[in-house]
Queue: 4 jobs
Job 1
Amino acid sequence: MTRYLGEPVTGTEQLAGYVGNQDFMIHTAGGDFVLKVGDRRELTAEAWACERVGSVGVTAPDVVALDVDRHALPAPFLLMRRMSGAAVSHGRHPALVEAGRQLRRVHSIPMTGYGFLTGERDTADALIGAHPTWAGFTAEAGACLDELVVHQVISGGLADRLQKVLHELRDTVRFDGPGVLLHGDLKPPHVFADEGRFVGIIDWGDAACGDPLYDLARFSLVGAEALTTLLTGYGLDLDDDLQTTFAVYRLIRMTTILREELRAGGDWFATYRAAIESDLDRLAR
């Protein structure tokens, strides 16, 4: 890191991260930096997304270095300057209003393909989605249920309930329009503020392309108060149909996250199962 930053590292500390990566804070006399070590595809997607959203006025971390060929470490890494301020701490925080406005700008960026970004690029030198259709991306949730049951991550009964709802409500998440850039994992801890003022949005490793409502549905996991604040800036009213769409998208997201947790060797299943069961109960009312 001293070689990349051009100044001595004065200290390091490990940060909380996902099962598939390791994150570190790097301290120097000239400021702090975040080092992410992990999956080549996710790091490539994050570096590209941070730079791309800046072109439409969205504030994301400054990328210092991306090394996916293991020149300096035994694993791919992304080095970024630490964003000032701190994560938003409550659902009424005014920075969430500006985050909604900025998310709308993110959703103005047209993309090729659907689903999470790959390392491949289109003719415009933009990363592309892994699926040719949005339906192909959303179908992943139903396709992985047998795997989750075999490994006892979910019960057969829960899998049956999920399969039934995903089939019956498939039209609520139908999206035939051109895909746009998605943050993929937006939540208050990824929105930074300083003394009440919006600073920027971090953690773009799950960047994807597709239906903008998928981003909003992911954010809705944090509760109605924060969602209402974000939608004020985004410029969207929440009605019953949208609530249903959000619930189905949450089911899709939580199911595929269970699969990724399993495949990465993690065991943090209970929280995701509880979220799935909660939405299934909500949709059954």
Note: The chain is about 40% helix and 20% strand.
Job 2
Amino acid sequence: MAVEPRFYTVNEVATLLATTPNHVHAMLKRQELPGIKIGNRGQWRIERVEFEKYVKTRYVETAHELAEEAALEHDPATSERY
């Protein structure tokens, strides 16, 4: 039985999110994605639990953004008039 790792590397997170390691580094530096630096070279590690929380949060935030956009599209006060 395989044990899930506690931490992911930047490359693993990039693969999981279908993005680039540079994008993941930017997310870490903006503190959008929680991570820790380890070792003398300061390599980033992202705890699996924190990664899963991040993904769940993004689903909620995206749903709210889409709902707000839909409300604005259907609001007569914000629609364009010709």
Note: The longest strand covers residues 43-47.
Job 3
Amino acid sequence: MKRRKFFQYAGLSALSTALIGTSTLARSSQAQSTGSVTVQWLGHTCFLFSGDGRRILVNPFRTLGCTADYRTPNVVANLVMISSRLLDEGVVEGLPGNPRILSEPGVYEFSNMQVQGIATPHDLNQGRRFGTNVVWRWTQGGVNLLHLGGAAAPIMLEEQILIGRPDVVFIPVGGGVKAYNAEQARQAIDVLNPKIIVPTHYRTAAADPDSCDIAGLEEFLALMDGVPITRRSTDSISFSRASLPETGQKIEVFNYRF
């Protein structure tokens, strides 16, 4: 009994510590500027976020398999956030300048802004196959952003508490062995209830047909029947508080410029 109570208290203590960081992050988010953030899709789960005088790059990759015909995302950034480090994921070699790199869960300070990384499994076997995926949340341009990286497991209550409700969620939808398929993504969206949904990690013309195991976008969009979809003609979108839906949700689909 004493041993069981010890682990219960230890778990509560860890969650309490994380919640303190989350509370601080929320207060910091409220103090952020209320301008806008411009998001550029660089392929797969990689995006560049520009706003508040910061350039944040999430999940640069190596061009092979499902990313074979994308351009290498070697762009200038102040901060690089990585969800996982595998052969084709979390590749920082060749990035210009000397950006700060975050790849572990935790609460971080960067340029008068707080960023939180939350650990989730990168597979459906509690991470025993592909390890930990780091979900990143932060506020930029007054917009609460959540990048789920290669999330593969359902979102548990503790994770939901830490994540809160995002304004914009970047969520994998193509399945394979390392990330949500269309139905799993829909279930995660039901839990998170974001205002704007940006699908990631799906099969495009960039894929090597012999070594890419993920599905295309249409299955996910069909499951989200009733949610308005905007298919952009460009690879960039700007978000602000004023541009967010007052009620309901919408899906934003970027256009990669091959």
Note: The CA atoms of residues 78 and 99 lie 5 Å apart.
Job 4
Amino acid sequence: MYTFVIIFSRVICLLPHRLRRWIGNLLGQFCWLIVPTKRKNMAVKNAELSLNITKAEATGIVKQSVTRFGRMFMEVLYLPKITPEKMLTHVSMVGVEHLKAALAADKGVVLATAHSGNWEIMGAALAMLGFPLVAVVQKQTSAAMDRFINDYRTLAGMHVTYKSGVREMVRLLGQGMIIGLLADQDAGQDGVFVNFFGREASTPQGPAALARLKDAPIIPAFITQEATGNHTIHIYPAVWVHKTADRDDDIAVATQIVTTTVEQHIRRYPGEWFWLHNRWKTKRPY
């Protein structure tokens, strides 16, 4: 499987941009066809409730959020051909001064992002453009695909660590690096319950807990794709976790601030978020 994907990637790298986009769109349409109806209905209902729109509008947004994965996959396969110079013409940044100021504090940075846009390209862009990014990733079920995607992350200049490597995250944050964490998935009973689109949602504590531990700033950042096919990374002002005697409250307050920023970004670009994930699956225990 690993060899097959590498060969496929090399073939994709030989193709012109328009043909890669066409193949990506075709793959995306296929992805939409194979999504189980039950999951589609769940996603559409959540989009309806969250955005206060009609079922037809929600269906369109959810379909858009699924079909984009074909193009995303093509972009990842093409990564070996993207140099830092080429990345500068492919990806622009809005608010990069917030990230630079946070790094200047010399406490490291926790970068909180979401499954919105092509987050793999965002990580690659930041690393290629000289930002010391640590990608905190979920181990893939397929060992071959896990190796493939991590090899490409490393190729782009990212340091890769798994979500289980908390000690390594703490150490690298203390060394002034950027710890990239996804902050928009259901976190089960281990999460902190905050408001997300008007409903309580179990949310990962990781970004706030790590930032509080090392007195580091949290920088929310997301990527979106323009009509041209190029990307824009939106970087928001730092969130600082206030350290009081109530650790749980400190984490909850900061997590709510970050989650509100995630929500605001999704409202601007609803078709780029991963609606197929059951974000409101876990209910608060009583």
Note: The CA atoms of residues 47 and 84 lie 37 Å apart.
